[in-house]
Each structure stands twice: as structure tokens, then as C-alpha cells.
Amino acid sequence: MNVQIVSKALHEAETEILVLTLFEDTLHNLGYLSELDQKLSGKLSRMIESKEIKGKYREFTVLHLDSPGPKRLLVMGLGKQKDFSIDRIRSIAANSSRYARRIQVSEIAIHDFSEYAVSPHDCSLALIEGVLMGMYRFDKYKSQKKNPEKKLQNIKIITSKNAQVDALRLGAEKGKNLAESTNFARDLVNEPANYLTPVRFAEYAQEVAKTEEIDIQVLGPEEIEREGMGAFLAVARGSEQPPRLVVMRYQGNPGGKTLGIVGKGVTFDSGGYDIKPSDSMLRMYSDMAGAAATLGAVRAIAREKLALNLVAVMPLAENLISGKAYKPSDILTSMSGKTIEMLNTDAEGRLLLADSLTYIQKYHHPDILIDIATLTGAAIVALGRTVSVALSNDDDLYSQFFKAGEYTGERVWRLPLYEEFRSQLISDVADIESVGGSSGGTITAAMFLNEFIEPGQAWLHLDIAVTAMMQEDIARYVKSA
Ligand code: BES
Ligand code: ZN
Ligand code: ZN
Q: Which residues in 56-80 are b (16+ Cβ under 10 Å) and which e?
């Protein structure tokens, strides 16, 4: 995808489709569209007067022109001015590019939102993210791709302000990097388990490390055993596919602070001997979405050359059944030394995470530690189908994370880590029990992880059980297929 920043008046923009936006409550004042409207002999204002264009959010009007500039106008409603956000820019960009693809044009142009409450950098970032994430399809296994002959190839951002060209260009480059890293993670999540095994995932990580020139270590079963990761290994043992522990390091600020990320990488979760019913097992090839998000973040951070140090740990295994598989009520010894009574083999993710959290703290001492996991079905019960659940022992860290979620459109909401939930994890026979009964499942899972967090370690746990495979069409760039 080729992105161009073009400094021109809107009516002079030579393009197949020019995308414009309007608020429903300021229609009387055409603002940045006045000059274009004049050139069109008042066509836009007449359509507004006749209420053919109302500016409602998601409204979509196409006008064919016979002018030398744009061949078509796509007028998109932005809704009420008070509801404006950069997420609406993403959504508009996604809808416009999907429309362009549907009618098989190879280029669209979009105005620069410079009259709106958004900086040029954030605007072009959101525009390009919206286009690239909105166009995403997982069609690798389709012999016949949809519309292969004419793809959307060029995006032009039209600005009348020369001074904004550089900021728009920088934002667009960043948007491209972020969206490509997100789509890379989406591809990994969508790959079925017969292709994406722990070994293959580690090969993708090697590839990222090579391209971005960063450190990588890949541990196999013997090395994992040598580290004493008895909880992680217990999960992996039921499968023919050997596990991997991928550790990646990016140094963007030597001597400075280090961010640690741990991502759950269960490449297939059958539930083990506590086997899942068929319907629940269907999409469990996506149970490595935490590791995919982690690898996507490593790629994005390294490409952006952010001034921070990053260490990422991705434990990868399959949760299957065999004569070697772990059984309900097995007692496992974790890397931390704590023994775990394992009451349900379907609660495998927390075992991978427990040992990985110990590992990252022991060897890499992160200043901030985040883990990402498709951990509990209870997260879906608690907060529905569009929000990730966050739990944290650090209010500032959570509040920064919350703000970042609002900015990126990937929203998070907090559940508490109250001490009384700890009592649900008391075991009669081991140091700790790992399931914690049927109530407050997302919280007790996090309380279990908390047992492996060192005193004073700032930590945030993100349960993405539902957002990893979002079906809801809350914004057209979000849906993953
Ligand atoms: N991978 C699942 C969680 C999950 C459920 C992700 C639905 C995406 C959609 C996890 O390993 C699991 O099975 N958790 C159990 C925990 C229970 C046994 C304590 C669950 O949520 O039922
Ligand atoms: Zn499970
Ligand atoms: Zn799982």
C-alpha cells in the first residue's frame, strides 16, 4: 500500500474516490467543504437542504462527478461533534476502503481533518490504521481470492496546509507500521493449529528477530525442564508437538527502563482431560493470541525504534490428551518452587504464565510487567464481547493503560484484585490451588498469577479471551475476518 500526502485544494484532487466527512450538528456551516461546494455549483448544500445528507454516523453517500478532479465523492457522516474521536476516523477510513475494494478502484483520497479537534499526526495515523486494518482478510487458504485483479493500492491524504505535510507523513508511516504489526498478529491468531504449532510460532519469532535485528533465545523441552518450569511442562507433555519458550530482547534505551511482556501461547486448547465440549473447542487454535499480540508488539516497537528496553517471553504449547498428559488433581512444582494443585486441566494458561512470569522477573527484572492471555471464559461473562479485562496492582500503570486503550480504540476495563479472593485458592494438599471455584473466574485467575509476582513489581494482567477473536462490528477495522 502506497501512501501519499498531497497538498492541494479538494476540488483539484485527481482521484477515483474523494472521502469527505460531515458532522450532523454543524451542517449549516460547510467549513472546509465551502470551496468545493462552490465549484460544484452548490450541489452539496442542496443535498444537505433536501436532507439527502444528514451527517449521521455511518451515513454513506456517493456522488459521481464529471469534473477533472475527483471522479466520485464519498460523503461520510461523523455524527455529533461531541462524539468525535480518532476511532471514528479509523472507522470511516475502514468503511471507505472496503467500499473502494468492493467497486474495484485502486485509489482513494481522504481529506486531512485539519478543521477537527485532532493533530495531523494522529489523524493520518488513524487513517492509515483504519484502511489497513479495515481491509484485512485471512484468505491464505482460499484458492480463489476475492477481487484479486484490482486491489486498493494508493491512499492519498489531501491537505491544504503545506505546514502539515511532514506531520501527516510521520503519522502515516507510524500508522502503517502499527497496522501491519496488528495484521501480522491477526494472521498468527487465524492460522489453524495443524499449521501453527509451537515450533512454527517460534520460527515466526526468529524471522521477526532477524528482520528487526534483535536478540532472540528459543528454549526447547530440555532447557525448559532445566529451568524447573514444572507447571509449563505439565501442560506441554500431553502433546506430540514439543513446547518452546521464546525470549526476545530489544534495547532502545540502554541503562533505561525495561518493559516486560508475557503472552500466553497455547496453539491449541482442547481442555485436556477436562475436555471442552465441541462448540467451545472450535476456535481454540486462537488460544495463542496473547503470544501473537506480544510478537506483534515486539515488531512494532522495534520498527518504531522506541526509546525503551523490551523483553518479551512467549511460552508455547498445545493442551491435548494422551498417556503422558497431566490429569485433574495432579500436583505440580512451578519454577518459583511453589506447588500447585491443578483441579482442572482446562485452566492450562495460568500454568504457562506462572512459570514465564517467574522466568522474566528472575532473569530480566522488568520495571513494568504486562501479561496478555486468552485466559478465562468468565471475562466474556463479566464485561461482554468488546472490552478486554485488565487487573493491576498499580493504579498509575492501569490508568496509563486505560488512556492508551481509549486512544487506540482497543478498550480495557478494570476488575479488582481484592485480597478476599485469595481464599478461593487455598489448597488442602499443595501451596496453592489453581482454579478457585466457579465465582469471579477472571479475578481468581489473576489472583493465581499474582502469587508469582515479586513484591514491589508493577504488573498488569490483560484477559483478552473475547477481544482476541472479536465478532462484533463495533468499528469496521476491528472485525478480524
Ligand atoms: N482458553 C481458555 C479460555 C477461553 C475461553 C478463551 C473462551 C477464549 C474463549 C482457557 O484455557 C480456559 O479454558 N479457561 C477455563 C478456566 C476454568 C477451567 C477455570 C474457562 O474459562 O472455562
Ligand atoms: Zn483451557
Ligand atoms: Zn486456554
A: ebebebebeeeeebbbbbbbbbbbe
User: Which cell numbers hold the place of 447?
Assistant: 489472583
Q: Which atom of ligand 1 is nearest to the CA of 444?
A: 19
With contact defined as beta carbons under 8 Å apart, do 172 and 130 qualify? no
Torsion sign over Cα 167, 168, 174, 177: negative
How far is it, in rounded angstroms, from Cα 374 to Cα 210?
A: 28
**Reduced DSSP (H G I as helix, E B as strand, rest coil) percent helix, strand, coil of the chain, to 5:** 40, 20, 40
Tell me the CA distances in angstroms from 168 to 78, 83, 132, 408, one per residue in order: 21, 23, 16, 17
CA distance from start to end of the chain? 19
H, E, C per residue of 166-207: HHHHHHHHHHHHHHHHHHHHHHHHHCCCCCCCHHHHHHHHHH
Length of the chain: 481
Q: Residue 318: CB within 6 Å of ligand 1? A: no
In angstroms, the CA 366 to CA 360 distance is 7
CA 230 from chain centre, in angstroms, equals 30
Rounded to an integer, the average pLDDT of 226-255 is 98
Tell me how far the alpha carbon of residue 125 lies from the centroid of ligand 2, in angstroms. Answer: 36
pLDDT digits (tens, 9 = 90+) for 396-408: 999 999 999 999 9
Of 276, 283, 414, 422, which residue is the catalytic one?
A: 276
pLDDT of the residue at 479: 61
What is the number of other CB atoms lying within 10 angstroms of the CB of residue 437? 13
Question: Phi first, then psi: what are they for 12, rounded to 5°?
Answer: -95, -5
Do 169 and 121 form a contact (C-beta atoms < 8 A)?
Answer: no
Q: What cell does 289 get? A: 493470541
| Conformational region of residue 431, where left means phi above 0, alpha means psi within -120 to 50, and beta covers everything else | alpha
Per the annotation, the verdict on 350 as an active-site residue is yes
Return the amino acid letter for 299. R
pLDDT digits (tens, 9 = 90+) for 142-177: 998 776 667 889 999 999 888 999 999 999 999 999
Q: Residue 73 has which C-alpha cell?
A: 465523492
Nearest Cα to Cα of residue 181 among 260, 302, 297: 297
> Using CA positions, which residue lies closest to atom 7 of ligand 1?
377
